[in-house]
Automatic annotation (TrEMBL):
Compositional bias ranges of the Polar residues kind: 14-27
Motif (VHIID): 239-243
Region (VHIID): 208-273
Similarity field: Belongs to the GRAS family.
Protein keywords: Transcription, Transcription regulation
Region annotated SAW, chain positions: 427-501
Sequence ranges of Low complexity compositional bias: 47-62
Region spans: Disordered: 1-27, 43-75
Region span, Leucine repeat II (LRII): 289-321
Name of the featured protein: Chitin-inducible gibberellin-responsive protein 2
Length: 501
């Protein structure tokens, strides 16, 4: 397996769409039958050229500039499966019945002896079925099969960053597969995670704001969490909110205004904002910028306020960083963050459970948890790949109804704020895989083991979220179960919000 791959070229067509027109560098793949016989196929490097193409895909080009079913694993039965076949059948289809597998002649070049109708029939892929082809490509990469290059070449012809939802998702999943084969996934993820010179901080802010506006996922998370917090700190005079990923601090602007408008004495509010250096570029600076912004809002509202900045990754946070004071009503917020904290599957230190135990030792009034409802943490590659396909199909469909397909800002927002997660899920393993989602059932078990009990979200929160969704597409679904709120698209749950004490 090589360490590099050729550029992926996006070629613009007359309708403004873009298609991928390249292949990875030559790599060696092995196909094994159940009886352990195998054949090695070496595909030579191939570079496609076009006067219309530009070097590098939207993702790989940027990389060159810088170093969510309830309580159980998702069922794969609902996803089209790729059938098994014999080695001899595969050889006959790809190279012809009389070919010499061991000879390095032109018959081994992809496409020279590969009959599309035959291999589609053999793999059970209907012509034009992009979803089936994506699944077949993932299975081929998982098995290191010698036919994967042919499948990926076909996939390149069908994907587009300005096409239908499945075409756009397919473009980024293909990018993830290429990065996995060339071991460039981590560098690509880092380049897309708010690093210069991919985009300016103002551009990244505009991309994030676009997604915030056109999809209700972030508003759902922030509003449901804030509702639980407001209920838990009624009558408290000293409130300390600990946010484990404060980002821009947007969640707390409305909270400051709400606390300032409370009848009677206004409480003293402290916010401890935790975030690592990766978010600095998107913010346009360090955490002090967030503190200054929130301080300004609090001052205008007449609310006593203090900000404590903790520039650290969540797994680095210790008790002493939190500056706990006697008499405070402590609130802890995990909004789309805890899945980034490594657990026992990554290393010998289980920081995910350690953080929860530490938070429990603070005796908080409430802990809010907002997470994507997906199962990608410990799932093996192919199951994780299928989960990524299923989850992000729903997300791309949700984005699709809100903005035109040729909208350049939407394309950029997907590339910078969504594609990076897809690439990380597909291309990376071990400590380099940051996106490690768990279904709510697993989070519930972790919280219970740490000593927490559920703090049901109120009917007021439920009604508020329902009112929010009135301004969005009718395919969004809100479900309440045992005081926990689920937001989904059609039949797929995407985000779950819960509270604990």
């Amino acid at each position: 397996m090589p360490q590099n791959h050729d550029d992926v070229h996006y070629i613009s067509s007359d309708d403004g769409s873009q298609t991928i027109n390249s292949r990875p560098q030559g790599f060696q793949a092995q196909y094994s039958t159940l009886d352990s016989s195998s054949v090695n196929c070496v595909y030579p490097a191939h570079s496609s050229t076009s006067s219309q193409s530009r070097s590098g895909s939207p993702l790989s080009q940027q990389a060159s500039h810088s170093d969510h079913a309830y309580g159980s694993s998702p069922s794969v039965s609902c996803v089209t499966q790729v059938p098994s076949w014999t080695l001899q059948e595969l050889e006959n289809v790809m190279f012809g019945p009389d070919s010499d597998i061991g000879s390095p002649d032109s018959s081994m070049l992809p496409g020279t002896a590969l009959h599309e109708i035959n291999w589609r029939e053999l793999l059970g892929i209907k012509s034009g079925d992009l979803r089936q082809l994506l699944i077949a490509c993932g299975k081929a990469v998982d098995e290191n099969a010698c036919y994967m290059d042919a499948l990926m070449s076909e996939l390149r012809k069908m994907v587009s960053v300005s096409g239908e939802p499945m075409q756009r998702l397919g473009a980024y999943m293909l990018e993830g597969l290429i990065a996995r084969l060339s071991s460039t996934g981590h560098a690509l993820y880092k380049s897309l995670k708010c690093k210069e010179p991919v985009a300016t901080s103002s551009e990244l802010m505009s991309y994030m704001h676009l997604l915030y506006d056109i999809c209700p996922f972030f508003k759902f998370g922030y509003m449901s969490a804030n509702g639980a917090i407001a209920d838990a700190v009624k009558g408290e005079n000293f409130i300390h909110i600990i946010d484990f990923q404060i980002a821009q601090g947007s969640q707390w602007m409305t909270m400051i205004q709400a606390l300032a408008s409370r009848p009677g004495r206004r409480p003293y509010l402290r916010i401890t904002g935790i975030d690592d250096s990766n978010s600095a570029h998107a913010r346009g600076g360090e955490l002090d910028i967030v503190g200054q912004r929130l301080q300004s809002i609090a001052h205008k509202c007449g609310l006593p306020f203090e900000f404590n900045a903790v520039p650290a990754a969540s797994h680095e946070v210790m008790y002493e960083h939190l500056c706990i004071r006697p008499g405070e009503a402590i609130v802890v917020n995990f909004a789309y963050q805890l899945h980034h904290t490594p657990d026992e599957s990554v290393g010998i230190e289980n920081h995910r459970d350690r953080i929860l135990r530490m938070v429990k030792s603070l005796s908080p009034r409430v802990v809010t948890l907002v997470e994507q409802e997906a199962n990608t943490n410990t799932a093996p590659f192919f199951l994780r790949y299928l989960e990524t396909l299923d989850y992000y199909t729903a997300m791309f469909e949700a984005i699709d109804v809100a903005r035109p397909r040729d909208d350049k800002k939407r394309i950029s927002a997907e590339q910078h704020c969504v594609a990076r997660d897809i690439v990380n899920l597909i291309a990376c393993e071990g400590a380099e895989r940051i996106e490690r989602h768990e279904p709510f059932g697993k989070w519930r078990a972790r919280l219970a083991m740490a000593g927490f009990r559920p703090y049901p979200l109120s009917l007021v929160v439920n009604r508020t979220i329902k009112t929010l969704l009135d301004s969005y597409h009718s395919c969004y679904r809100l479900e309440e179960r045992d005081g926990v709120l689920y937001l989904g698209w059609k039949n797929r749950k995407l985000v779950v919000s819960s509270a604990w004490c």
